[in-house]
Amino acid sequence: MDNVSTLTAPALDVARIRKDFPLLQQATVYGLPLVYFDNGATTQKPQVVLDTLEQYYTGYNSNVHRGVHHLSQKATDAYEEARKTAAAYINAQYSHEVIFTKGTTDSINLVASSFGRTFLQAGDVVLISAMEHHSNIVPWQMICEEKGAELKVIPINERGELLMDEFSRLLDERVKIIAVTYVSNTMGTINPVKDIITQAHARNIPVLLDAAQAIQHITIDVQALQPDFLAFSGHKIYGPTGIGVLYGKEAWLNKMPPYQGGGDMIKTVTFAKTIYNELPYKFEAGTPDVSGAIGLAAALNYLQQVGLEKIQQYEEQLMEYALQALQQVPGIRFIGQAAHRSGAISFLVDDIHPYDLGELLDKQGIAVRTGHHCTEPLMDLFKIPGTVRASLSFYNTFEEVDKLVAAVNRAAAMLR
User: Fold this and answer.
1) What is the per-residue DSSP string for 119-132?
2) Residue 203 CA: distances (Å) to CA of 112, 167, 196, 200, 223
3) d(CA 176, CA 119)
4) Catalytic site residue 144?
5) Contact criterion met (CB below 8 Å) for 36 and 44
6) In this predicted structure, what is the pLDDT of residue 270?
7) C-alpha distances in angstroms, 37 versus 160, 164, 214?
8) Between vectors from CA 161 to CA 155 and to CA 166, what angle results, nearest 5°?
9) What mean pLDDT comes out for the span 157-177?
10) Closest by Cα among 243, 241, 247 to 293
11) Considering the entire predicted model, what is its pTM?
12) Catalytic option among 374, 384, 406, 415
């Protein structure tokens, strides 16, 4: 495609950035250089994150909070500094509003369980959207079943956008919490979360945002946005797997009981009674993922050094270019065509099964995701078995988009 010249100059030196990611330099697939468009599933890691993990394990590996020896104190300092880094990244008012979890799924389960056990009763309503990931559906189904509450769904239009009139209509005194994705992992739709929060707060209804697909693409300021809870995963924002963040407003976290029991989430324990620890430790039972938290902080610092605004600007250019280029593929059908989108492009070509298309793309060195993307209700809504999803990062290039388009055309020609 030759319309790169019609776009403004890229905001980033992508060639230099790619040198920071060892896998992008080294990996080949069937003898071809890897073209990695599966960033929505997990992102690659910059060298600074890998170095940080190695430094922890070879230099000061120790458990945190419970030791007076030097290594334990050094590990504790690094772990708590990582919390401050994560809090600053989303502009939380207090660092103790950041709870380290295993990831977005763990964070949502924590809120569903702890909030639900305290505030949900029979007849109450939990409100989610039609485009949610299973991790923002199943935990709410479980707590609703346990408490006798009802799960209601905000519908979407054929473009994959929330029907906000229907959302407003669903808001009543029975709704006790709203849990919605900021950015759809399947369609890339950016939801009007500020409007959702404003309407919810007018009725004193708390809001949880699943930011797993937003945190790496969009600057998030929780004090400006005012979500009551926000969840994201480290591995989707260039950090390690197994670490995530739950942000919660201090007032809500103080009202909620612990999610798990064990070490570090207590002040005192007797066989008669346990007194729980203060925030954030009340929600961090057991030995935490110390290395993961420190590695996540390294990833967040790296992104800020690159420049979040530059990343967002470049990724918007790349998304626009990719959509224009893919539109030239005969028989392509985009699943989700929201006016505001980020990160992901889902599509089908003619009646070709997405798995078949994905396999032939893989043989050409192109990594994409195929299937229902843990959004089966959304696939049922569109009456399709799944999609091919290309998800973008700031280390992807226009040339890689061209390779994707050529590979899709080649694969489709073989499968027709």
Assistant:
1) H--TT-EEEEETT-
2) 20, 13, 11, 5, 19
3) 8
4) no
5) yes
6) 63
7) 21, 31, 16
8) 35
9) 97
10) 243
11) 0.94
12) 374
